[in-house]
Amino acid sequence: MPKRSRENTLQIYLSDDEQYILEQKWKASGMKSKSSFIRHLILYGYVYDVNYDHLREYNAQLARIGNNLNQIAKRMNATGNVYQADVKEVKELMKQVWRSQKSMLSKQPSIKQ
């Protein structure tokens, strides 16, 4: 039997779901062996560590804006009147939404290769 060029073994434990995903990705890759597929992932694959703190801040800010809009809508429904101050506040709230949207998008991670 010829001597192997790769002498180190790797043993991992997978859940049924992880095993299924591995099988599907390996088959989709068209590689002949799972070993070569896993080696390729180790050498050329990427692991992404994404920080979603800015999304939590964004969601909290949107929730506050939504609460303000709901209060204005309740007041309008209760009185049957649309007040200029409410219209102005809604416009300002929408500006806040767009500013927070731009801010959130600017904080998205860029993928570097």
Features:
113 residues, mainly alpha, 2 domains, 4 helices, 66% helix, rod-shaped
Total of DSSP H or I helical runs spanning 4+ residues: 4
Give the proportion of residues in helices: 55-70%
Topology pattern, helix = H, strand = E: HHHH
Radius of gyration: 27 Å
What is the strand tally?
Answer: 0
Q: What count of domains describes the coordinates?
A: 2
- How would a crystallographer describe the biggest sheet? none
* N- to C-terminal distance: 40 Å
Task: Bin the strand percentage.
Answer: under 5%
Q: Which structural class do you get from the secondary structure elements? A: mainly alpha
Question: Assembly state here?
Answer: single chain
Shape: rod-shaped
Q: Low-confidence parts, pLDDT < 50 over ≥5 residues? A: none
Mean pLDDT: 85
